[in-house]
Amino acid sequence: MHFLDNYRSIIRDAINKHNLTNPPHQLYDPINYILTLGGKQLRPIILLMSCELFDGNIEKAIKPALGIEYFHNFSLMHDDIMDKATLRRAQETVHVKYNENTAILSGDALMVISFQMLEDLEPHLFKKCFCLFSQTALEVCEGQQYDMNFEKQQIVSFEEYINMITGKTAVLCACAFKMGALIAEAEPDDLKNMYEFGRSLGIAFQLMDDYLDVFGNQKTVGKKHAGDIVENKKTILYVLAQQKADEVQKHKLNYWYTITGENENKVNEVLAVFNELNVGDSCLELVKAYSDQAKNYLNKIRVDTNKKHTFYELVDYLLVRES
Amino acid sequence: MHFLDNYRSIIRDAINKHNLTNPPHQLYDPINYILTLGGKQLRPIILLMSCELFDGNIEKAIKPALGIEYFHNFSLMHDDIMDKATLRRAQETVHVKYNENTAILSGDALMVISFQMLEDLEPHLFKKCFCLFSQTALEVCEGQQYDMNFEKQQIVSFEEYINMITGKTAVLCACAFKMGALIAEAEPDDLKNMYEFGRSLGIAFQLMDDYLDVFGNQKTVGKKHAGDIVENKKTILYVLAQQKADEVQKHKLNYWYTITGENENKVNEVLAVFNELNVGDSCLELVKAYSDQAKNYLNKIRVDTNKKHTFYELVDYLLVRES
């Protein structure tokens, strides 16, 4: 998607411009490391897109967009410790490359800096954006907590799962869309609809991520194939499988999700159950449903339909992406 | 000090009132746990004192004061993981009572909540207080990084040490004094002098802490006797000892500070060197010097001298406290 590349180059330039060079380098090097690993940088891009949609000044939105990207990377640093993840964007995670203490402390600093990225905004706007951001940040922590709770739950309901990914993924996406609109001084109804659009899109995005982990192209995903199965992560595929499984299949799932560590047999056995129950297709149907919900909110936003074109494209892009 | 108790009861009531009861309890229980462990709660108290000094509305200052206390407790949660500390205020640390992941994530949430405590302030004041707070937060992270760096440095200069404790302890103290004055809408010169007063006092406070760890009354300190020596912490006593030591004493210090774990012999040997070099008294002289510096800043503040009485008392209290 060409238009995404334009925004992405603005974000990358801004990240490079805000490279942290002050001492102590032991604190700031790991931050520069994770920020330059790349990634899709969708969250800051959508903040810029949203600001432009409402004819806002994109220059004013760049640092807040970086703030959103910084916060996302802070959460990755800490989540990777908690999840004992060794790879992030096909490179070593911060706690592996450096150590856990560094990942904790540099993450803390990065969270603070993410909030500081709003400080150029005038007081009224600053306060509005900060309150949105801080509430979002807390919900992200709650989402991560629910995700950790799932490790000890054999059954995770569909509602619990959607609630978890809403916190862990969708609200930051919703926050980015709404903040862009706030900076452009959009009307309250449009702010609300942008937020809900972002939340639905964020849920669809995470469901697609769960799908790609198992059914995606390993090279483009850049993560270990079926890493979620290896790590006994209760993703939407697991939740759907538990709902649809007969006693034999439930027994299989429950057995394999107690086995830890790499095990080729395990991935194949779980995958066989997933395929028997067709949970891949069910997952794609959910992605479609949440994408449609997102489009419904987008329809309500009171700007020219042709200005919204790239937003519809963005939603559809989720349905065809391979990583 | 009776007047401290009055402020402390305001803070304790506010902490209890803001008890976090929303789900997920796995995220919020550890926060309630650390906040109700007590501690001196000097940081929020000085924010209230400072607000009153400039005839500000103390009601308006209570939530920001909690914010400072919350931030301090967030930093304790994470520092205790990094330092592998098992006791805090004579109770189990969060990562021991719960686990490391909980201490990381609940700490993150607590940092966010600490900033949210400013959100009742009107936009202009909110922005001023937030910018002060966020800059302080970053300096606290830098201080902790320097402290971790010291683990790998045999020689720590006096300047490096003061710089480290300025970040790790003094700036949050300075921030609390200045924020109280900001909420009371004090004049720029007074704001600056309150900040510098707090910084000098914070340095004196930390130096006294270093002294008490080794020479304090174990029961009232509530921590392991000479825990800093056991953990090879390069405190001011170590820095001064390295400066004054002859070759034999240096050799002893360097030897013992490579030995890890509990070792009664080690504490006695290091203590013997400290006593030979009289670093306890040198440390108390530094406490006095920084306290005097604090008083000089206090002298410059343009409010009635009799209103500043409790502030002078607070400084002196540092020189006689036993914990």
From TrEMBL, chains A, B:
Molecular function per GO: metal ion binding; prenyltransferase activity
PANTHER family hit by this protein: GERANYLGERANYL PYROPHOSPHATE SYNTHASE, SHORT CHAIN ISOPRENYL DIPHOSPHATE SYNTHASE
Alphabetically ordered keywords of this record: Magnesium, Metal-binding, Transferase
InterPro entries: Isoprenoid_synthase_dom_sf (IPR008949), Polyprenyl_synt (IPR000092), Polyprenyl_synt_CS (IPR033749)
Similarity-based family: Belongs to the FPP/GGPP synthase family.
Source organism, top-level taxon: Bacteria
Protein name, UniProt field: Geranylgeranyl diphosphate synthase, type II
Keyword ATP-binding applies: no
Transmembrane region(s): none
